[in-house]
């Protein structure tokens, strides 16, 4: 091939290559423009889609009546709170029943270990559900043959609360046993009687009572105090819906550090400087506690501290607990004419005594007179409904 021919062929191939290159560039440019347009459209479409959804949601929300929605929401919340409250109450009752059964079992075990006979009521409580009473009252009572009727018709348990003498099986113990066999109105405690042991007796009383009887309230009354039983029952019945209540005439007397005086407190230093007062607590002549608190005392009796004064001890056991203190001055009226005037005005007292004697002064001689002038009436108890 000649030099000329090779030159023409090379020139021709160069022209073709330039044409294809130009076409390829134009094609790439078009494809790129098309792709760019497509990408700019997609976000716009997504934006439009979201905007439409937001608009539709806004229409739905704006179309609802806020007042109706609020009412529905309030009803739902109230219903949920009510159901939760009911569930908590049911749980509290279940726990209280279990604690009470535990206390009864412990009392039975202690009776067996001490060699004492187990009460028939306590035996029955292990196998069947016990009857519910309004209150158990540890008081000096003269009901005798009417005691059973009081329990059956009014749900009120009345008992003399007494322990043993220092000489077990002595003359005093035999006299109490003979009296108990005749009337059946004693509650015998595993406790040695003594003035300085009143705090221990209080613990033992509540522990024993809550093990023997299932009641709403457990009451302690001194034997030289006049009590209107129907008025007491009506007063306690108004607090039945409260689980942890401590009812009495609340006071806060001075802590007596001087030795040899009445109500001397050997542990006065625990209450701060000289001249300080006790915390609020019910006066010891009469007070009542709900079942939950009596059960608490029963379960924790071995670790509850005892002060010299029984009423102070009881108040100290509830310090730090979620307990409602109810100060009811009808539980500490004076003897005539105080309680008499109040009865004539229609405000019958629950209990009457003389503060100077911490009970009715010369109670054996004056009790009938106080009852005549301050009593609620012979038919008040039997006609009462709690």
UniProtKB/TrEMBL annotation:
<protein>
    <recommendedName>
        <fullName>Hexosyltransferase</fullName>
        <ecNumber>2.4.1.-</ecNumber>
    </recommendedName>
</protein>
<dbReference type="GO" id="GO:0000139">
    <property type="term" value="C:Golgi membrane"/>
</dbReference>
<feature type="domain" description="DUF4094">
    <location>
        <begin position="17"/>
        <end position="108"/>
    </location>
</feature>
<dbReference type="GO" id="GO:0008378">
    <property type="term" value="F:galactosyltransferase activity"/>
</dbReference>
<dbReference type="Pfam" id="PF01762">
    <property type="entry name" value="Galactosyl_T"/>
</dbReference>
<dbReference type="InterPro" id="IPR025298">
    <property type="entry name" value="DUF4094"/>
</dbReference>
<dbReference type="Pfam" id="PF13334">
    <property type="entry name" value="DUF4094"/>
</dbReference>
<keyword id="KW-0472">Membrane</keyword>
<dbReference type="InterPro" id="IPR002659">
    <property type="entry name" value="Glyco_trans_31"/>
</dbReference>
<comment type="similarity">
    <text>Belongs to the glycosyltransferase 31 family.</text>
</comment>
<keyword id="KW-0333">Golgi apparatus</keyword>
<keyword id="KW-0812">Transmembrane</keyword>
<keyword id="KW-0328">Glycosyltransferase</keyword>
<keyword id="KW-0464">Manganese</keyword>
<comment type="pathway">
    <text>Protein modification; protein glycosylation.</text>
</comment>
<keyword id="KW-0735">Signal-anchor</keyword>
<keyword id="KW-1133">Transmembrane helix</keyword>
<keyword id="KW-0808">Transferase</keyword>
């Amino acid at each position: 091939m000649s030099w000329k021919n090779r030159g023409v062929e090379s020139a021709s191939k160069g022209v073709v290559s330039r044409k294809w290159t130009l076409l390829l560039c134009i094609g790439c440019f078009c494809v790129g423009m098309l792709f760019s347009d497509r990408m700019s459209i997609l976000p716009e479409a997504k934006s439009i889609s979201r905007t439409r959804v937001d608009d539709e949601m806004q229409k739905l929300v704006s179309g609802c009546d806020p007042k109706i929605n609020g009412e529905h929401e309030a009803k739902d919340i109230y219903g949920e709170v009510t159901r939760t409250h009911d569930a908590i109450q049911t749980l509290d009752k279940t726990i209280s029943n279990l604690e009470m059964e535990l206390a009864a079992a412990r009392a039975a075990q202690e009776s067996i270990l001490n060699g004492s006979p187990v009460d028939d009521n306590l035996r029955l409580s292990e196998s069947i559900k016990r009857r519910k009473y309004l209150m158990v009252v540890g008081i000096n009572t003269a009901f005798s043959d009417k005691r059973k009727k009081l329990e059956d018709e009014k749900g009120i348990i009345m008992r003399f609360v007494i322990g043993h003498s220092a000489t077990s099986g002595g003359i005093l113990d035999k006299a109490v046993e003979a009296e108990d066999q005749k009337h059946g109105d004693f509650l015998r405690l595993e406790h040695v009687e003594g003035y300085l042991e009143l705090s221990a007796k209080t613990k033992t009383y509540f522990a024993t009572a809550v093990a023997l009887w299932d009641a709403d309230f457990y009451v302690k009354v001194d034997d030289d105090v006049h009590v209107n039983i129907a008025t007491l029952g009506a007063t306690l019945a108004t607090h039945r819906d409260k689980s942890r209540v401590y009812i009495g005439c609340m006071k806060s007397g001075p802590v007596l550090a001087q030795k040899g005086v009445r109500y001397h407190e050997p542990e006065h230093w625990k209450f701060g400087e000289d001249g300080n007062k006790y915390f609020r607590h019910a006066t010891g002549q009469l007070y009542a506690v709900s079942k939950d608190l009596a059960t608490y005392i029963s379960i924790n009796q071995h670790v509850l501290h005892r002060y010299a004064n029984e009423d102070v001890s009881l108040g100290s056991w509830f310090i730090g607990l979620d307990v409602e203190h109810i100060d009811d001055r009808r539980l500490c009226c004076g003897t005539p004419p105080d309680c008499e005037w109040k009865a004539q005005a229609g405000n019958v007292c629950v209990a009457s005594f003389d503060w100077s004697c911490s009970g009715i002064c010369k109670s054996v001689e004056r009790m009938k007179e106080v009852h005549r002038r301050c009593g609620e009436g012979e038919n008040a108890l039997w006609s009462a409904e709690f």
